[in-house]
Amino acid sequence: MTTAGTLVPYADALSRYEPTIGLETHVELGTRTKLFCGCPARFGGEPNTQVCPTCLGLPGSLPVPSRTAIEYTIRIGLALNCSIAEWCRFARKNYFYPDMPKDFQISQYDEPLCTDGWLDVTVDDENGQRRVRVAIERVHLEEDTGKSLHVGGATGRIHGADHSLVDYNRAGIPLVEIVTKPIMGADAAAPEVARAYVAELRDLLRSLDVSDVRMEEGSLRADVNTSLAPRGSARLGTRTETKNVNSLRSVERAVRFEIERQAAVLDAGGTVTQETRHFHEDTGITTPGRSKEEAQDYRYFPEPDLVPLAPPREWVEQIRRSLPELPSARRERLKAEWRLSDADLAALRNADALDLVAGTVAAGASPADARKWWLGELSRRANETGTELAGLAITPAQVARVAELVTSGSLNDRLARQVIDGVLAGEGAPDDVVTARGLAVVSNDSALTGAVDDAIAANPDVAGKIRSGKVAAAGVLVGAVMKATRGQADAARVRELILERLS
Amino acid sequence: MSGELTRMTAAELSAALRGSDVSAAEVTRAHLDRIAAVDDRVHAFLHVADDEAMVAARAVDARRAAGEELGPLAGVPVAVKDVFTTMDMPTTAGSRILDGWRPPYDATITTRLRRAGAVILGKTNMDEFAMGSSTENSAFGPSHNPWDLTRVPGGSSGGSAAAVAAFEAPLAVGTDTGGSIRQPAAVCGITGMKPTYGGNSRYGLIAFASSLDTPGPFARTVLDAALLHEAISGHDPMDATSIDEAVPPVVAAARQADVSGLRIGVVTELSGQGYQPGVLARFAEAVELLEALGAKVTEVSCPHFGYALPAYYLIAPSECSSNLARFDAMRYGLRVGDDGTRSAEEVMSLTREAGFGAEVKRRIMLGTYALSSGYYDAYYGKAQQVRTLIARDFDAAFGQVDVLVSPTTPTTAFPLGERADDPMAMYLADLCTIPSDLAGNAAISVPCGLADGLPVGLQVMAPVLADDRSYRVAAAAEAAFTQRWGHPLLDEASGLERLEQAEPRGAGR
């Protein structure tokens, strides 16, 4: 068990040091095939079943680049406001590792496909919301490695393992690396900016339909660089690179932890070691990985098995014209259309409910109803079951139908929740659940008067209070009627009937 | 009959097979017998595929009997350098590190040979990973020059050249990275062609230096080389550096064999000091001959050719240091020291130490150094600039003349062992051939006589994608020389006579 070591409280750290952050994000592209061969680029599969001579790096095999992967990279670059290179090359990054089939990775080095872009993100601060423009240094395309599995031993890591197995299914899957320039001036909001950047990038990539962008499955991986400089210093501090940051929340926690840790090192008169660090999801701390001082010389050189990449300008323009409405523009549009406040919008984004609400509105619900159901009842269900909203077994169209049944008076909220129960339990569409469970509001007086009379008779004290003018006490009787009718009574009509009787 | 069959050219065999004068099985049997009779002394082959070859030959005979229209090489035997993957035969690249490896896939060249109906006799010896000029760097022992068994057959495709020169195969495939087809062809007295880079697929060719490696043909005649060239060439979607253009009309050019009116440039820089006098004399006679045939000969300067050798010995090792990284004991080939106590890194290191020969290690180290941070610009970067200048020299020269000529190598075949411990002397064997590898243009070597009883090669260099011009000039020279000599040069190979005397009686069934 590693411990956090000495930390400086966050506010203290910020009072003396200015943080600079930077993010390197790897996105597994959702292409049908791998980057340099025809093998399927699917997640999972029996080990070493999605392989061929090329992605196994067998002697004599050669890479042939996927046009789709290049197109996706250009899409990402354009959406991030980058310049697209007129001519660039792949490069070999040389290092020995058992899960690297060729013992070099085909990547890009000093000639990336996309350069110099930006992405705007918003974070909450004391004055409401603040927009931060994150400068993008480069976007490049490279191949993924295989995966090592260390068997035996306590940690599942290489040290102490009995033996290791390698699965090359992942080897050669296209990866896009997106690197920011150093983000300065975020100050105390640095952790939030880091998180907001990854969230915005994830939404952007999702809208571009180039990846399924699932952080938990590793199709979106963020490395977070953090450094501290004494306030007023013109020079940047030494940075650490934190890996294994597998959720938005972890991005934020990792930056916060590094700020607190580095401040302690600097306060003690020490120097921050330039190194790769490993984030631990369970404890929220980082521990040292490979030191950059013993880092290898990758001996990059232009990949001689490939010809230079020169995307024709008309192709790039065609890709630009095909870009969808990007998330920031779409959010502004929906905010106006749905008449949302900044806080309303932020709540939708934080719950990852924007697409679900939009889908529900598109299926006929009012924006207010759609928000109410997704942020209320459905968020609660998701929390209970530990799933994401999007993972619930109910579609936006079904939610819209539930809302419609409530609006029309066929259901009240309580019945509607039972319908949702039924849908989530796999009993079918909302109308099927209504029929099967016999859920419908009872509002005809003849069916209700008996229950009302019973409730009055059973609660003479309450009835007396109402007669003496304490109308608010009617709620108790309404409750009793609702209970007696298993929630199916029209509560408003029940209340009217009670007051008529006791006036 | 068997002896006659092995003396026939591919074109003659093709005609005989078409006319059903002989069966592919008979032709193949004759060559396998020849290999059995002489290869213990020539050692051209690392693997002889008797059974597979006979099966392939009978299949061709069956197709022909069924009335199928077959290509010119159907039923013609061919030897394949052991650097191309073959599913039904081991593939070692001359290295202990791949000893016993059976590839799960065929190289494109292999596939095209099979589709053409050519019968693959086996895999030929080579310098380890194609690094060398003598086959002495083969992990499995050197091949011997059929002209003089105490001398090298050149390299790295020395096994392919020796097989053709020893009449073990009418055709062979090799690869040229710095001269590895042309130099062995020259010192074995046969024809060898390095096509335009990208004209022939590298898929399934175990890489030495990716930007240079070029598959090409060996044969005893220029026409035969062109027939093989045509069968294996053309665009391959499996190789991103493969050129998507029509194959130059090489067979027609070899048949045309006419140089009248052609402008031929003699490269000033590829002669003089360090060249064997007999080589220069034969070369001068070849130039006179071409002039007599109606070519217009001028001298052309290529000022940067002097830097080609050093540039090559930075670029090729740099690429090889990366290409050979994959031999790490993890997935295939040799594995040393895996006793359950050692880390993957230690096993990699022990395997590479045991599996690679001295020359391969030397080049991996050279290349690793040249690509290192802080040295890249001074070495690899500068070498690439030189490469550009050499390509410009060619462009300028081909603005004045149609082809360039030079001796193929500065010397004739040297004795086995003479240069084995002197890398620089060994590297000089490729002095004249390297410029065309760096520039990627076409170049052929064709015999132009003997010096001190050993063959000399004439190199004819042509622009990128003008491979046909090399064939046209080489075929004209070949025709004129053969007429002058009264017989093919190979008839004078004295080592072969000794071999024939040693050939077991009864082999000629």
Note the main sheet of chain A.
9 strands, mixed
Structural class of chain B: alpha/beta
- List the secondary-structure elements of chain A in sequence, H or E: HEHEEEEEEEEHEEHEEEHHHHHHHHHHHH
Query: What general outline of chain B do the C-alpha atoms trace?
Result: globular
Distance between the termini of chain B: 6 Å
Structure description:
The complex is a heterodimer of chains A (503) and B (509). Chain A has 503 residues and is α+β, with helices and mostly antiparallel strands. Chain A has 16 helices and 14 strands. In chain A, the strands form 3 sheets. A 9-stranded mixed β-sheet of chain A has the order 2-5-6-9-1-10-11-12-13. A 3-stranded antiparallel β-sheet of chain A has the order 4-3-14, with no helix packed on it. The model of chain A has no long low-confidence stretch (mean pLDDT 91). Chain B has a domain at 2-257 and 442-494: Amidase signature (AS) enzymes (Alpha-Beta Complex), CATH 3.90.1300.10. An 11-stranded mixed β-sheet of chain B has the order 1-3-2-4-6-5-10-11-9-7-8, sandwiched between helices. Mean pLDDT of chain B is 95; it is low at 505-509. Classes of the chains: A alpha+beta (503), B alpha/beta (509).
Task: Explain the layout of strands and helices.
The complex is a heterodimer of chains A (503) and B (509).
Chain A: H1 10-16, E1 17-28, H2 67-79, E2 83-84, E3 91-94, E4 104-107, E5 114-125, E6 128-143, E7 147-151, E8 163-167, E9 174-180, H3 190-208, E10 220-230, E11 240-245, H4 248-267, E12 275-279, E13 286-291, E14 301-302, H5 313-321, H6 327-337, H7 342-350, H8 354-362, H9 367-385, H10 396-407, H11 413-424, H12 430-437, H13 445-458, H14 460-467, H15 474-484, H16 491-502
Parallel strand pairs in A: 11-12
Antiparallel strand pairs in A: 1-9, 1-10, 2-5, 3-4, 3-14, 5-6, 6-9, 7-8, 10-11, 12-13
Helix pairs in contact in A: 1-4, 3-4, 8-9, 8-10, 10-11, 11-12, 13-15, 13-16, 15-16
Chain B: H1 2-7, H2 10-18, H3 24-42, E1 45-48, H4 50-65, E2 77-81, H5 108-115, E3 119-124, H6 158-165, E4 171-176, H7 182-188, E5 191-194, E6 214-219, H8 222-232, H9 250-256, E7 263-267, H10 277-292, E8 296-300, H11 308-323, H12 344-355, H13 358-370, H14 377-400, E9 403-407, H15 423-427, H16 434-439, E10 442-451, E11 454-462, H17 467-485, H18 494-502
Parallel strand pairs in B: 2-3, 2-4, 7-8, 7-9
Antiparallel strand pairs in B: 1-3, 4-6, 5-6, 5-10, 9-11, 10-11
Helix pairs in contact in B: 3-4, 8-9, 9-17, 11-13, 11-14
